[in-house]
């Protein structure tokens, strides 16, 4: 896609580089992430083995392991093997190795199960938020809900203990304010002054994250008169929700929440594929259709959610419109590198850059 087509999304598109860490330049980071990815291989293999009756699964899982471990070994010897070396690349290579052995959607059943479970709590969560005494408290709780929901990530080592819990346990775990990056007050102040026309939200995990974190937040935007494009991955990666799965989740949620149902009917709430195949986000490669729809709908707020989209990539990206970057740092090394404890909160609100900057 030509860069001139991104000026409504990126401020100075030609200067955009999605990746936060350059593992070629940063030897300590390279060593850590290569080791981490190698350790994660076992987790994937075990998950694959426990997840199917297919008699070929053992040999395919072994071949996947060999494929990925070899790729990592090659990168140790020759970090320039792919021309660049970033966390995004390591995660993409992992997905490629899985797909090469026929594992196209390892988390499929798990995602379905988690979506079903989370939907049973949606009505109660919405009622709880509606019961808050004022807007400021409501938005604080909505934002905390998105962050707590983002803990439910099968790609992170640190959260295994909470994956079988609910939103409330996760709300206890996230960092107390002030957060490591704390733009919450700035965001709520902005809401008091402005109603955005249309928000594009790049979403992350299935289950609690999308259903109990993102959907209440979306509903609150809709109630203000902001329309919403939910942008989800085209291809399965980890337990990230895909656009096809999200359509289904939204249909189910619309039976629970009349606000969502009405917005779907009027076209004020739509699901689109982001065109991405991995758990990170390169805004230069979003699908052409989404790119032009964002222009046509006049998107004036972009929300990036989760470690892959707001931390491994795009943490330093300058967007052309108002933006929110939200994530919980579910990796101890990265938290320390950023200067905070495990489960630190990234909550960055940035106004659209003025022409003067």
UniProtKB/TrEMBL annotation:
<comment type="function">
    <text>Phosphatase which shows a preference for 4'-phosphopantetheine and its oxidatively damaged forms (sulfonate or S-sulfonate), providing strong indirect evidence that the phosphatase activity pre-empts damage in the coenzyme A (CoA) pathway. Hydrolyzing excess 4'-phosphopantetheine could constitute a directed overflow mechanism to prevent its oxidation to the S-sulfonate, sulfonate, or other forms. Hydrolyzing 4'-phosphopantetheine sulfonate or S-sulfonate would forestall their conversion to inactive forms of CoA and acyl carrier protein.</text>
</comment>
<comment type="subunit">
    <text>Homodimer. Interacts with PKM.</text>
</comment>
<keyword id="KW-0464">Manganese</keyword>
<dbReference type="GO" id="GO:0015937">
    <property type="term" value="P:coenzyme A biosynthetic process"/>
</dbReference>
<keyword id="KW-0378">Hydrolase</keyword>
<dbReference type="GO" id="GO:0005829">
    <property type="term" value="C:cytosol"/>
</dbReference>
<keyword id="KW-0533">Nickel</keyword>
<feature type="domain" description="Damage-control phosphatase ARMT1-like metal-binding">
    <location>
        <begin position="69"/>
        <end position="341"/>
    </location>
</feature>
<keyword id="KW-0944">Nitration</keyword>
<dbReference type="Pfam" id="PF01937">
    <property type="entry name" value="ARMT1-like_dom"/>
</dbReference>
<dbReference type="GO" id="GO:0005634">
    <property type="term" value="C:nucleus"/>
</dbReference>
<dbReference type="InterPro" id="IPR004567">
    <property type="entry name" value="Type_II_PanK"/>
</dbReference>
<dbReference type="InterPro" id="IPR002791">
    <property type="entry name" value="ARMT1-like_metal-bd"/>
</dbReference>
<protein>
    <recommendedName>
        <fullName>4'-phosphopantetheine phosphatase</fullName>
    </recommendedName>
</protein>
<keyword id="KW-0479">Metal-binding</keyword>
<dbReference type="GO" id="GO:0046872">
    <property type="term" value="F:metal ion binding"/>
</dbReference>
<dbReference type="GO" id="GO:0004594">
    <property type="term" value="F:pantothenate kinase activity"/>
</dbReference>
<dbReference type="InterPro" id="IPR036075">
    <property type="entry name" value="ARMT-1-like_metal-bd_sf"/>
</dbReference>
<dbReference type="InterPro" id="IPR035073">
    <property type="entry name" value="At2g17340_3_helix_bundle"/>
</dbReference>
<dbReference type="GO" id="GO:0005524">
    <property type="term" value="F:ATP binding"/>
</dbReference>
<dbReference type="GO" id="GO:0016787">
    <property type="term" value="F:hydrolase activity"/>
</dbReference>
């Amino acid at each position: 896609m030509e860069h001139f087509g991104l000026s409504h999304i990126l401020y100075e598109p030609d200067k955009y580089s999605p990746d936060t860490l350059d593992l070629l330049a940063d030897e300590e980071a390279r060593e850590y992430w290569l080791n981490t990815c190698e350790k994660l291989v076992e987790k994937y293999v075990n998950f694959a083995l426990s997840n199917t009756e297919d008699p070929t699964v053992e040999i395919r899982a072994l071949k996947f392991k060999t494929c990925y471990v070899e790729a990592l070994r090659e990168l140790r010897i020759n970090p320039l093997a792919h021309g660049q070396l970033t966390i995004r690349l390591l995660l993409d290579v992992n997905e490629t190795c899985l797909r090469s052995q026929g594992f196209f959607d390892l988390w499929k059943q798990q995602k379905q199960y988690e979506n079903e479970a989370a939907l049973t709590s949606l009505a109660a969560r919405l009622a709880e938020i509606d019961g808050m005494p004022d807007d400021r408290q409501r938005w604080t709780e909505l934002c905390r809900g998105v962050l707590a929901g983002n803990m439910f990530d099968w790609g992170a080592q640190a959260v295994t203990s909470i994956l079988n819990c609910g939103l409330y346990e996760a709300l206890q775990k996230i960092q107390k304010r002030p957060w490591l990056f704390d733009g919450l007050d700035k965001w709520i102040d902005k809401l008091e002054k402005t109603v955005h026309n249309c928000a594009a939200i790049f979403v992350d995990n299935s289950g609690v994250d999308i259903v109990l974190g993102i959907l209440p937040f979306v509903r609150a935007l809709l109630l203000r008169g902001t329309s919403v494009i939910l942008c989800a991955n085209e291809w399965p990666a980890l337990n990230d929700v895909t656009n096809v799965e999200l359509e289904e989740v939204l249909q189910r949620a619309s039976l629970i929440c009349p606000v969502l149902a009405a917005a779907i009917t009027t076209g004020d709430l739509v699901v689109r594929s982001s065109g991405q195949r991995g758990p990170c986000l390169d805004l230069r490669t979003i699908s052409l259709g989404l790119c032009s729809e964002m222009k046509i709908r006049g998107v004036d707020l972009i929300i990036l959610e989760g470690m892959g989209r707001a931390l491994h990539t795009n943490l330093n990206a300058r967007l052309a419109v108002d933006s929110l970057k939200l994530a919980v740092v579910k990796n101890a090394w990265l938290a320390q590198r950023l200067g905070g404890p495990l489960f630190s909160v990234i909550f960055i609100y940035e106004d659209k850059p003025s022409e003067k900057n």
